[in-house]
Design a protein that fits this description.
Length: about 230
């Protein structure tokens, strides 16, 4: 009788051990499946989109063939380096979002996803026109990028309209220039920012050193200077 009990305990222990191992394998596999990334050897439509966008912005000079080879890897690395991302050549979730490619997975949506409606483009263009009229084109895109970086930042409203109309955030709102009709340059800059171009490397603030009156703003580390504006983040 005692021997049977010992055997039963051993069998039960082995079954629990096997179940625990199976559960661990399931979790590891599930995480791997839910992790979106494209790298050397990947193929398909998403790779083609990556190549098209990076070619449009001057990072990629190869064929748009949907095959993730050396040139695509180098182009992704360059894009990551210029946009404040880990430059490993792997197009993961953060890199894809910066490029402007949305790939569905089973994870929860991030702040700022799906913000590119036609109304958002028009409002962003109006803000860019009011804030950056006369600035170089890269500087106009940079203003749009700051707006989007704020949308994704937990310290700011999580919509484009919320960021732009946040009290005291933009001079163009305070002085009414937000209501001017945006030009073609501002509209194009808004679209480029929404498509993932961030010349600022992730900045959430910008100001004109010649006119800035806030003492606090100078506590923000400057990461980029474009035209008359400097850009920074904390």
């Amino acid at each position: 009788m005692r021997t049977k009990k010992i055997i039963l305990v051993i069998v039960t222990f082995i079954m629990v051990l096997n179940l625990s191992y199976a559960f661990w394998i399931y979790n590891v596999t599930a995480k791997a499946v839910n992790t979106i990334s494209y790298t050397w050897g990947s193929e398909g439509d998403v790779v083609r989109q990556i190549q098209q966008k990076l070619k449009q912005w001057g990072y990629y000079n190869g064929n748009v063939d949907g095959k993730y080879g050396y040139q695509t890897w180098e182009a992704v690395k360059s894009f990551q380096s210029k946009n404040g991302l880990k430059a490993d050549g792997i197009a993961g979730k953060q890199t894809l979002e910066k490029i402007g490619i949305q790939v569905k997975d089973s994870s929860q949506k991030q702040r700022g996803d799906n913000v590119s409606s036609s109304k958002d483009v028009r409002l962003m263009a109006a803000a860019i026109h009011g804030e950056g009229r006369g600035e170089p084109y890269e500087g106009q895109v940079a203003i749009g990028a700051v707006i989007l970086n704020r949308v994704r930042h937990s310290s700011f409203p999580n919509t484009i309209a919320g960021v732009i109309y946040q009290p005291g955030a933009f001079d163009a709102v305070a002085d009414g220039q937000i209501n001017l009709e945006p030009g073609d340059s501002a509209l194009k800059a808004a679209r480029d920012a929404l498509n993932g171009w961030d010349p600022t490397g992730g900045a959430i603030y910008y100001w004109n050193p010649a006119t800035a009156k806030s003492k606090w703003i100078w506590s923000v580390p400057i990461t980029k200077r474009i035209g008359k504006h400097v850009f920074g983040k904390k």
